[in-house]
Write a structure and sequence with these properties.
The structure is a homotetramer.
Chain A: E1 2-8, E2 13-20, E3 23-27, H1 34-42, E4 46-51, H2 63-70, E5 73-76, E6 86-87, E7 93-96, E8 99-105, E9 114-120, E10 127-133, E11 136-137, E12 140-141, H3 151-166, E13 174-177, E14 195-196, H4 197-203, H5 211-220, H6 228-238, E15 251-253, H7 255-263, E16 267-270, H8 274-279, E17 286-287, H9 293-300, E18 307-310, H10 318-328, E19 334-338, H11 341-347, H12 360-368, E20 374-377, H13 381-386, E21 392-394, E22 413-416, H14 422-432, E23 438-440, H15 444-451
Parallel strand pairs in A: 3-4, 4-5, 5-6, 10-13, 15-19, 16-17, 16-18, 18-19, 20-21, 20-22, 22-23
Antiparallel strand pairs in A: 1-2, 2-3, 7-8, 8-9, 9-10, 11-12, 13-14
Helix pairs in contact in A: 3-5
Chain lengths: ~450, ~450, ~450, ~450
């Protein structure tokens, strides 16, 4: 029996292919399905089943495309108006070659959430692993904020799913969740992508709580739902994601053409590093560094208009990678990219913007001086609770656009976060909104902590 | 300015991507278009044009799919009822970045055949290279047998196209034909894929002939048209090849399932090496070794039924490669492949066939002995003209099925060709037709020549 | 924390890279070390440690080469005369970034055998996984036949290592052994490469036995030690494997050159499939299909002379793969390979051999007829104990060369095994030894069982 | 016959593999020889010869390493004290399978320079292509400044080599030089990497000159010899480049370790884009963007000390690529790279530098205002001759370090070049030398020309 894990970087989404004896199944596939087909072929297996642990809200699934290419059947939980596939319920079993798949209803994250325990009948009847979707993660558990008016109920459901359904499978069962560290589908995950139920039972902080404490913890967590979640939910019910190859190719665009397209509504999306954006950027562009794209595109990339990417000159794969991340999240209209990167823009004679980097020491000095800048802290509430700044205006990054009126336009602004990366996104958004003097505190809190600096508020 | 050559192995088809300054064009694309898109991206170029030298008869073009993915315009010759694209005529010019493309009417191979001379205006006005399609090859010229009732006329047209249109471009022009050695679109090509008009003018045997001698040579050439040519012509006029990714994935099939499918009409296509087929094969299968598939599938693979591939157990890429070759030729229904290769069949207990190899010395002895076998020579007429065998029954491979009644069923048959590879195909076909004792002379004529053997007829 | 598994196909050897926070360690590296360096680089980690679970006997380790390229320290068990590295003993701990590595003495397979339990201190103190070397496998345990005069003692040591040292680590600990199914370092492994101590505790057949039964089982097992084991042991103590890139490149050799080299002592090693060898082979060659090379090269490939490989014509990677497998096993003199594969040989006019395939039904008939062939069963004693054949001469493949005098030369021989693959090796060896009429029962026992055939002896 | 071109990016060095019939030869190999071995294997060829057109001065050759791995013989020109290989002289011929290689003495660039004309004897006796080394390029000719006291003589030699030896080979001969556009071994090359003698005869500007004009042009050209040239010459005579795999692996280094190593003499080499360096850089580092590294490392990277690379956080291959480029140029001590890129540095709390970008319009304004900055033009003399700036201090980049005393330290400096990229290197060097206020005119002259700006001096 083989098992292969596929990671969708950025989304921190994990999907799986397992099988034996000429048959294989995919769990929670992303829409870039070639990787599953290729792996199944390498194992001489036909994909016979696709199992979905729940209606995913953060990416488009590739289930129907796999079914079309292989004839596999699709199975998901009951209670939603699926336009495709078949439902499965607690206790149902399937065979994938010698592998027995047992369906476990594990509601909590969503009502229809399923887990799938697999047993390798060639060696025994005990389950060897379990796909837990967004119920149980390594070092954490799934979020339970999707039914705000049933908050306590669903948190309790999740507790029961974990303690009465999952953990009883046995300490020796390998845990295979749908997300790893970095996902927006839960917080506090361990940056390790292998574990067992036994290890989690003893070490997962959330599993050390009793039912009441667990419900209390879950109902006081803060989560946010980027606007694209709703689109993903609708589209995943419909299963309407076209094959990736049906999308048009992003074309290189000269600075002239790129500028013209921006006037016609193209949204320029800059995926270069924070330092590169700080050095020079195309006025009007939105900057989200590539490794943060999956996390923030859902907040700051509009759904409708065509997108124009800005990457480093010698590409090195950034354009196709950005395009794939965007396509997984349902942003399918990448019209092109700026040919020659910023260099193409600069040599065209066009103006470019800058976001000066400010070291925390210098920032501290400027805050002490006359006409101090606004210190704009864009960290989350949880982070600020843990370590606040003195004299800062706190606007979480995700609320920035709605709360612009709180941010003065007549003073310089220095954006600040944990490391200077999210604050760069904030700075880019402010620039786009017409703020003139905007700087970014590269290093931010980490630099303060490492170097010691007077920005930090006293211990509470 | 860059130029990249793409070879479709087997078909010996050559296609090209060239461009500069952010724009690129493809010449005679095959339908597996990802390679052009990837190469254009690597050069930061948008594909703006697709040029077709003629309506191809030996493979499906990918022009429309490129156009759909990139917005490129398609250009081909006049006089056919194209369902897509635009026509171009002698003297028309196009710009691809700084590259000037000049259209040259070069009828002969087909009436609407075009050549495209390209000049790099960054360095001069002289053409630097010319795409000659099936007009002029390296070491040879295109076939002119597609208009049998105008044989002399079109041979003359080709002569004129070469001598009056192409060669005058200048000795220093690089020659970029649509086929290399091994193609069915012409014979006698040099196994080298770079040349110039100057080199060809002095060294191409066909270019040493005067007009009359050229016409005589061309009108006495023997060419064959495999049945699938007609389908390619029709489909390339319509441009109806779907994206490759729309085809279903070939699935592994157990021996049981494979046998059952054969009963339901699946055609088993064995692409292993001649020696492996000789050792054991699935009764009823057609054997065409992978490196001969593009040449012979058009003759011996039926168009309609689903195909089941047989490859070596540890695949090593043979299944996807065979599938790609078949798809290029319009055979789009590859249902699956035999899981575990022959081993899967053998261990299922099913019968397998054998085609004993016969060394030419042993063959010579057996022909001298009592009850000699039939020595079945499947080489072409041209080959036999050059070196005949004693006591052989000559049936060119491509006529084998139609002329079965000439081949006795009551005597052992030993198939023979140039090296023992085509004869293996013949042996496989005979086995499929119910011949009982069939052997293959591995080594065949080459072995005779190298080792000396009495099979050879006296010099004429 | 990341963990990556590397499989050396054929040897079924498993090695590992794990780490976090910029540091990484390798466990039991093979000598093709580029894969570890590349993976460490992808994780932005420096390799700081190499851990060896024991002195490996079946392949050359790459520990010193890793140390030379990265500065890592090497750690192995006590009691042997290591020429490099440092020893480690029970209870020692190491840090690899945040990962704590605890050394466990687990004698049994060898006296100096170590296991390494790893804890991810970022999430807890419990061990999350354990590298068990050749002590505990998935579905099996290590062999204990290396100290024949202490057989019971070392079997008991292994029992204690497993039950008193490994299992107490906890059910939830992931098991990471040095071999998977197919290795010669133990039998009965499950064809699955992930498990936990908890799963094994309940499902591993050897872990269901009490101490006495375990010792009895281990001391009655049959294992064989291919002659190269001894060389590996000596060389791994010395650590004298040169970098792979210091070896010369295998060159293509024409049939003439290949034949000449064979006369000068080159050993021709044919790695094609059994069917292809059956169809035609180079006289004097040793045939071991590529996927069996790691298992049988140690028995049938001589240590000293240069080797010449025979693979399929269009290579498809078989030559470099065979060369890598051979190099891992210490066969470092691959002089070249036959250009054009068998085709090159056949067209040179040289003689080739054949090994006719015999279906089990035909074999049964021939055994009933006059002048029956010798039915040579080359399966192991264990297999024959389980299912014997009627009228067979049983000589296990590995004893074939020593027991040639038992195999009559004046009668046809049909080699037979479980599936017809090992018997092909036997047939090839007999041909090399001058046996004239040798056939192979492709399908062998599997075909008998599937199709029903009278060769099988009655149930005992 | 096949021919494959290998490009060493940055150096714009071209090397070649050609062959047929089982034999192959390499022309002017770089030391990363795996690519030649792999390509030869794909063609089933043994490398039998290495041809060197001249003692290369800009990179280390891999000839001896190829010879060691394959047994090939090495051939180079006469008159130098080679420590390896064999010499060859005008008129010598070699056979590589059916390919005939004819040696042509073509002195001029260096005295011992050879060209190699190749004929494919399978199709004719005429040469089909010629390897011209640094004699004749596409659109240009080799530099002739290596013998300053024989300047006119060697320019004349080159003229004669081209007109009396190369061009007479015939218009239809394909030109295969040792460098393409971007090389320091000649200027004015066309950015196209295919041409013929005929095309060059008519379009290469240098080939339109008569002997006197040619000599005049060559002797007034300006070329520079980076200091590493001399080391390459010495080492290529000795052939002492060790295998690439003998070098240690660059290790990731935390900011702490990196900073510490810098104190101990590590030279920090930043290969990120100009914009990223502008945004933030490690104080004391030398910035040379990756795509300019081959051109400028020879000037600004010291030979002896260990190097520490700084690349973007998510590497994307920049570290290995930079390391390869440096190794080709003989910089073999790359100790490591900054883990996490600039982010790792910033979050450590350490100070970072900035180089503000200045748009040309802003620059023009500042130059008009009170206390104007120094406008430091680092273009070459040829460029300045063509288009000078008003009020600029001209110091060619390569003279910067020697002429620091001309650059005032008490005024802001704005570096300027053709596009803002070389000026970034200059700005980085000035920062390293302690200049406080240094800015870079991103866009530079190109932006001026495109947008129109008053910096340009009147037409001369």
């Amino acid at each position: 029996m083989f098992l292969e894990t596929f990671r969708s970087e950025g989304l921190a989404h994990l999907s799986y292919l397992f099988g034996d004896g000429g048959e294989a199944a995919v769990v929670d596939p992303s829409r870039d399905i070639d990787r599953y087909l290729r792996a199944a072929r390498a194992e001489d297996c036909r994909i016979t089943h696709v199992f979905e642990t729940h209606r995913n809200e953060d990416y488009l699934v590739g289930s129907r495309e796999i079914a079309r290419r292989t004839g596999a059947t699709i199975h998901h939980g009951r209670g939603l108006d699926w336009k495709y596939g078949e439902t499965a319920g607690d206790g149902d079993t399937f065979r994938v070659g010698p592998v027995e798949v047992r369906v476990l209803a594990t509601p909590g994250h969503t009502d229809e959430s399923l887990s799938f325990a697999i047993a390798d009948t060639a060696t025994g009847k005990d389950p060897i692993a379990v796909f837990t979707g967004d119920s149980l993660f390594i070092g954490s558990v799934g979020r339970t904020d999707f039914y705000p008016d049933r908050a306590r109920e669903v948190a309790g459901l999740l507790f029961d799913s974990i303690h009465e359904t999952l953990l009883p499978l046995g300490d020796g069962v390998i845990l295979l969740p749908a997300h790893g560290a970095g996902s927006v589908c839960g917080g506090g995950m361990a940056p390790r992508d292998f574990s067992t139920l036994g290890y989690e039972r003893r070490n997962n902080p959330m599993l050390q709580l009793d039912r009441d404490a667990f419900i209390r913890a879950k109902t006081t967590e803060r989560h946010e739902q980027p606007p694209y979640f709703r689109r993903m939910e609708v589209r995943n019910l419909a299963g309407d994601a076209p094959p990736l190859d049906a999308l048009t190719e992003p074309a290189p665009m000269t600075a002239d053409r790129f500028a013209e397209a921006m006037e016609d509504g193209l949204v320029a999306l800059d995926v270069r590093s924070p330092e590169a954006v700080a050095g020079a950027f195309v006025p009007g562009s939105v900057a989200i560094p590539l490794d943060m794209l999956a996390t923030y595109a859902g907040w700051f990339v509009p759904d409708d208009p065509p997108l124009g990417l800005i990457a480093e000159k010698d590409d090195r794969g950034a354009v196709p990678e950005a395009r794939l991340i965007l396509a997984r999240m349902g942003f399918e209209r990448v019209a092109g990219y700026l040919a020659g990167g910023l260099d193409g823009w600069e040599t065209s004679g066009r103006r470019y913007g800058r976001i000066p980097a400010v070291h925390v020491d210098e920032l501290a000095r400027r805050l002490e001086a006359k006409d101090p800048p606004v210190l704009l802290d864009v960290r989350t509430r949880d982070e600020v609770d843990e370590q606040a700044l003195r004299d800062a205006l706190h606007v979480p990054l995700r609320e920035l656009i709605e709360r612009l009126d709180e941010i003065p336009r007549d003073r310089p602004v220095v954006a600040f976060c944990g490391t200077g990366r999210r604050s760069l996104i904030a700075a880019s958004l402010l620039k786009r909104e017409g703020y003139e003097e905007v700087a970014d505190a590269l290093g931010s809190l980490s630099a303060c902590v490492a170097a010691g600096c007077p920005l930090l508020a006293k211990e509470p």
